[in-house]
Predict the structure of Sulfatase N-terminal domain-containing protein.
Amino acid sequence: MSLATLLVPLAVALVGAFAIEAAASPQRPSLRAGDLAIRAAGYALIALFWFQFSWRPWLAAASCLLTLAILSVVDRLKRRVIGEPVVFSDLALLAQVPRHPQLYYTLPLSDPRMAGPLLLGLAAIVAWYVLEPTALPETAGASILAILALPAALTALAFSALTPWGQGGLRRLFPYPDLTRDVARFGLVATMMGYALRRLGEDAAEPRPGATTSPEGVADDEVVVVVQLESFLDPARLGGPDLPAMARIRAEAAQYGRLAVPAHGAYTMRSEHAVLTGLDPDALGFGRYDPYLARKGEEPTSLARLARAAGFATVFVHPFHRDFFDRARVFGRLGFDRLVMEEDFSDAPRVGPYVGDVAVAERILAEVASGAGRTFLFSVTMENHGPWKPGRLAGIDAPLAQYLHHVANTGAAIERLIDGLAGRRATLCVFGDHAPSLPDLPPQASGPAATDYALFRFGRDGGAAPGRVDLTAAQLGCVLRAAVSPNRTGLGG
């Protein structure tokens, strides 16, 4: 088989992939020669990846184009809903899509609208295998050598990027995370590859930071409860009614305010990690996009580990699947002794598709009431998780109306926690993980929309009047450290 037989399909793949991305991207792609070369290298690697499975040049080219078409569609949807391009860590979430399709605006694989195109695609691939001749050498020995050599070469190339020489080159191309800039320069594929390799390189080359600041305090609480409220912010900011809980927050909280979070409309784990560790996303390098994937819960200075060292029993409460975000394993490593998850809420009432927030509040209070000794409890709610679409709530189809219905229950849950903990020496913190991904609240060019938080300190006489103090999620994590670990002034090592 001639060299042209291989190069012509590859050229078609490179030109076609660029055209697909340029047409779908909201940004004008860079036309600088160096940037185009890096972009083309990314496309070529995708084509070679598919080529190793079939050894059919035109099938590999078509597979490359299909890959770019799918990535571009997903990227456009993600930018519209979340305000962020597709990133390498999103690939790790693919396994969750068929298991939890309701969370990803997709249909289950059993749905004919999904199963039909997949079966047609499989049939087309089988037919293509029959119709297009293989590019393998004619002799058996040379064919076996080629079949083994190509994946070995691609693997060696990936590992070479993790060497000091390879990481030096990647640092020049990707000195720090800037998705919007880098996707415009190098395209989705090369940026995803570069970011993934930069993150892997960070594991070997860079020490893990710790929280750098923590206010002095005395950890004398019986109970510390921190509740991450799904998609929570003051509904009055969306034109909704005033929540009684917000009035109580402004009247009774030790402090409250806006909370600057790392993402809009999704990526709960980013806010969780920031609060639990006190680490700003900028401190995480290329691991910022999914700290659980990058660090797997190995955080020596997490709130849970500090609390456990100070004599608290540590409990995590979350009414959803253990496998989601690999939370069961991650939270064990973060320092939680006991996990209360979906199987423990089998009889709890649901509001829409998820366990109601009031039921979670009742379970939290039951946990701290039954615990022996001091307890640190971190909870993540689910009731107000998207998507908000027709059929979710009987008689309520508009996304904003659904959200306001759920957030009223969130307010009731906050009040239930205030009432249940007010008689104890306790700290209660509630905060929103991210703004909801609603049509009425699109992503902002200036960055993720802030949520709201409140910090209550019960069982203390006097004290300053409630005041508004706006924080980042990481700063809130540093404030909470005073409740679980006294007189900590630096947690860097």
Observations:
- The longest helix spans residues 179-205.
- Confidence is low (pLDDT under 50) at residues 212-216, 488-493.
- The chain has two domains: 3-205, 223-484.
